[in-house]
Amino acid sequence: MKKWLILSTLCAVLLIGGCNPANNDQQELEEEVNGEDIQEDDDVEQEGEGEGLDNEGDRLAVEHEFTKSFIVETDVEPGFHQMRGELNGFEMLIPENGIIPSMLHAIENDAVETLIYTFNNKSKKKQYHVKLMYYQKYPEEVKQNYLNVFKDEVGFDGDYKYVEANDLEIYHESYEDEDEYGPVLKYFGYLFLKDQNHAIPYEFMAMCQGKEECDISFEEEAEMAEKLMYSIRLLDQ
């Protein structure tokens, strides 16, 4: 699951050049996904390989050079900041220890923005990945096609739940899985701002961190997934 997640994540944002990076590039990308990319002026070495971001002593969002450029307001509520996409199309909450690796952000044709951030709960040995793709414009007539393709991408063959909130039409669901380290929760939703035809597919994954098993409460993790999803605002332009 971990290797699959890294590779699928890299493929999602390498919009140009396909999905076969050279060995050195792939290693660099994987290190940044796992929070191992260290600037030359860092004074403290990261401990452990491939164990995610440390939310107690590692880099915080406001301290990470790339991530902080997305922060528009700090401490909007305990443990969370407000972030905005580079295309100014959406805002949402990001945990204070959330990190956006520069390699996992891309803009295509000034109209589509892909952004992935990761955060963790070190004390409970849990790791989280959040992926969004902002579409500045989508054709209303292919809306159902977007939803069908999205289900295929996340590996779900059931029916969406539907809600309306924050001037958005939201189609969402979740499922439980397991990898060699323990349980995994995948939560996903497709959000549409109908009047302006903006859209954003949202994916949230909670899993055990590193090589240690952990206990994951699907109910608690779903609450976090929904909190982040419902914090999304698609902005008028």
UniProtKB/TrEMBL annotation:
PROSITE patterns membership: PROKAR_LIPOPROTEIN
Record's keyword terms, sorted: Signal
Region (Disordered): 34-55
Segment forming the signal sequence: 1-24
Keyword Signal attached: yes
Keyword Signal: yes
Protein name stated in the entry: Lipoprotein
